[in-house]
Design brief:
- The structure is a single chain.
- With 312 residues, the chain is mostly helical.
- Helix content is 72%, strand content 3%.
- It contains twelve helices and four strands, in the order αααααβββααααβααα.
- It has helices spanning 2-29, 33-56, 67-82, 88-110, 116-134, 161-184, 186-196, 198-203, 208-234, 244-257, 264-282, 286-299, and strands at 145-146, 151-153, 156-157, 236-237.
- It has a two-stranded antiparallel ribbon. A two-stranded antiparallel sheet has the order 2-3.
- The longest helix is centred in the N-terminal third of the chain and has 28 residues, at 2-29.
- It starts with a helix and ends in a 13-residue tail after the last helix.
């Protein structure tokens, strides 16, 4: 049964990859350019949700300020573009570095606490960054600012929706591969042991703080990549990229898709954004129905829609 389940999961993964690769061709053939940008948005949010799932699901770290790293990545790209740096080969690594440094600083302080204190410190840092960018009038303040799309090569920019989609797909594939390798390696085993019993893990001689900080920085860098993609996709950045509302949305995506599930962030992002788009077309009270769906996802299956097929 185990081998059959593994083959079935492998077949689903290959099918999903083929559909993802062929999707832009189908969307362009049907003349639905909107679907292409919508799919790229799902991919970007899937990266952010997967990064949160790494520390929330596998590390037991409930961060309510994860959007801070999405915003740092997006704003670093926007500021660099405004100052004339549009090359993706320069701006993107610098944006990821900024997100990693922000995660290192916040994690170094927040991980010295536990439980509700950790949640409040991550939220506090995110709100501090939010109000910091609001005060930056030169970069749009609370109105945000336009972001010229990055250039891969001279004359080859990311105005091309198909190119941006494939870049987002490649970034998501890399994010899932890194996450899978991490959680299957001794690093992931220690991280999950610390989630279940940090005191016992520390007594066994493992430096729990360093492992959790490493996971926190990796997750922050991944979230920064999502911010870079969203900034290019929207052509705009605003303080909402750092708001606690976005952190809450990412947490809902993880819950919908399945906590501590590799594909949980991907499924959760797709379900959430599709529901948001569909329900908002039907009623202005779409949040109510989305909340009911989230409630059902939490109460019925143990691990969201991904977990309905049984335990790992």
């Amino acid at each position: 049964m185990g081998r059959l389940a593994a083959r079935a999961r492998g077949g689903l993964a290959v099918g999903a990859l083929l559909l993802s690769l062929l999707f832009p061709l189908a969307a362009l053939y049907a003349g639905q350019d909107y679907l292409l940008s919508f799919a790229a948005r799902i991919l970007a949010f899937a990266i952010a949700a997967t990064s949160l799932n790494l520390i929330l699901g596998y590390g037991g770290l409930v961060s309510f300020g994860h959007a801070a790293f999405v915003g740092v990545g997006a704003y670093t790209l926007g500021i660099l573009a405004k100052e004339g740096v549009r090359s993706a080969w320069v701006a993107w690594p610098l944006s990821l570095l900024a997100a990693a440094l922000a995660a290192l600083l916040i994690g170094s302080l927040a991980l010295r606490t536990r439980g509700i204190y950790f949640i409040m410190i991550t939220l506090a840092f995110a709100q501090m960054l939010y109000y910091a960018v609001v005060s930056l009038r030169v970069y749009g303040g609370e109105d945000g600012m336009a972001v010229p799309r990055s250039l891969l090569l001279p004359g080859l920019g990311l105005e091309n929706g198909v190119l941006l989609y494939y870049l987002a797909l490649a970034a998501l594939g890399l994010t899932l591969w890194i996450t899978h390798r991490l959680v299957q390696a001794p690093f992931g085993w220690v991280l999950q042991a610390a989630r279940d019993n940090p005191s016992r893990t520390a007594c066994l001689g493992f430096p729990v703080f360093q492992f959790q900080l490493g996971a926190f920085v990796i997750a922050g860098t991944m979230a920064g990549m999502a911010g870079v993609l969203l900034a290019n996709l929207n052509g705009w950045v605003s303080p909402s990229f750092l708001s606690w509302h976005l952190s809450g949305q990412l947490m809902m995506m993880v819950i919908l898709g399945g906590v501590a599930r590799l594909w949980g962030g991907v499924v959760g992002a797709a379900v959430y954004l599709v529901l948001e788009t569909f329900l908002s077309e039907l009623t202005i009270h779409w949040q109510l129905f989305l909340g009911l769906f989230l409630l059902a996802a939490v109460l019925l299956p143990k691990r969201g829609p991904v977990g309905m097929g049984g335990e790992r």
